[in-house]
Design a protein that fits this description.
Layout: H1 2-11, H2 16-23, E1 26-31, E2 36-38, E3 46-52, E4 55-60, E5 66-72, E6 77-78, H3 81-86, E7 93-96, E8 100-106, H4 107-116, H5 118-144, H6 147-157, H7 161-164, H8 167-174, H9 178-188
Antiparallel strand pairs: 1-8, 2-7, 3-6, 3-8, 4-5, 4-7
Length: about 190
């Protein structure tokens, strides 16, 4: 679990003693591609730190069309955060899009540790700040950047994305149709 320790220590310095409190709450799991970790309507209990692979969060409209909202890669945490915080059903599906190795941890147990340990609380705060910044950046991109620039930003952030997920999913991340994405890709070639 040294990857997690290095990652957390890069956010906020953490002592070995505090890290061990966190480490004890996680278990390593290997998860097959296309495994649903949390479905719409589920009340989630766990968070996942990605050691390898990729996870996506998506929703489905009444006609069955999927809309990918977020992608999570190595050294990121994936979870239905709003559902965990409110202890309510998830509005999104969290699914592995590749084979993954993750550290699975119980959110309630980790919250309890953060309420008792200032170093762990500081890490939780830093992670929330980073989450906020990523949401703010996504809103900025949708407000200021055109679809081509959003696409270029996406493929820069997620190397080999086009080999991992279908074009229609990439299009939903960008807020465009697959046909629009096809035109953008054609112009860039």
């Amino acid at each position: 679990m040294n990857n997690l320790h290095l990652y957390l220590n890069s956010l906020v310095p953490i002592s070995n003693q505090s890290y061990l409190l966190i480490e004890n709450e996680f278990t390593i799991k290997k998860i097959q591609k296309n495994t649903i970790l949390c479905n719409i309507g589920d009340i989630p209990k766990n968070i996942y730190h990605i050691k390898s692979g990729m996870i996506r969060a998506y929703t489905v409209d009444e006609k069955g069309k999927e809309y990918t909202k977020s992608l999570f890669r190595v050294n990121q945490f994936a979870a239905s955060l709003s559902a965990l915080i409110k202890n309510e059903p998830s509005k999104l599906v969290y699914e592995t899009i590749t084979e993954c190795e993750v550290l699975e941890g119980n959110y309630t147990a980790l919250r309890k540790i953060s309420s008792q340990n200032i170093e762990v609380a500081n890490i939780a705060l830093r992670m929330l700040e980073m989450f906020y910044l990523s949401i703010e950046n996504k809103l900025f991109e949708f407000t200021i950047k055109d679809a081509k620039d959003r696409y270029l930003s996406l493929i820069k952030r997620f190397e080999n994305i086009e080999k991992l997920i279908p074009q229609y999913q990439i299009a939903t991340i960008l807020g465009i149709t697959p046909i629009q994405l096809s035109r953008i890709r054609k112009k860039l070639k």
